[in-house]
Amino acid sequence: MKTDWIGSKKTALILAIFFVLGIIFLVGSEYISTKRETAASVVFDENAYTENLEARLSEMIRTVCGSDEVKVMITLEGSAVYCYAQEQTESEYAREKSLLLQQDKNGAKTPILTEISAPKIKGVSVVCKGGKDSEMRKEIINLIAGTLHLSTNRIYVTE
Length: 159
Known about the structure:
Layout: H1 9-40, H2 46-65, E1 70-77, E2 81-84, E3 86-90, E4 95-99, E5 101-103, E6 109-111, E7 113-117, E8 120-128, H3 134-148, E9 155-158
Parallel strand pairs: 8-9
Antiparallel strand pairs: 1-8, 2-7, 3-4, 5-6
Helix pairs in contact: 2-3
């Protein structure tokens, strides 16, 4: 009994599975290469960062002081720090570091971004109802100090 191997249903199913897997790998590799390209062009938005922190702190302070009249201002020290992948080469007399580069579809070479560190918080100012009360002020200062890992001398609360 001779079976037509090429025309069997099992062979057709296996070929279909390989075809689908091939499509998935092609699409996946395009997605990964796109992700790498965009990583090099990422810019840290300091305004969005501070606005987000201020809004979250304001909400927490509203809960503590029981008033909707809360304003928070955060000042940053410096700016974001971008870290790029490096390779180190050693010779008999020196060590040299150089950036690792990736090449995009157009042939342009860009450094590989590995990490973005947010800028440090320099200080926080809070204006809220009840900010003159020493107990309320102390509670708000401790809340901010604990949340942002800041020393209390970098936090000012007033009404």
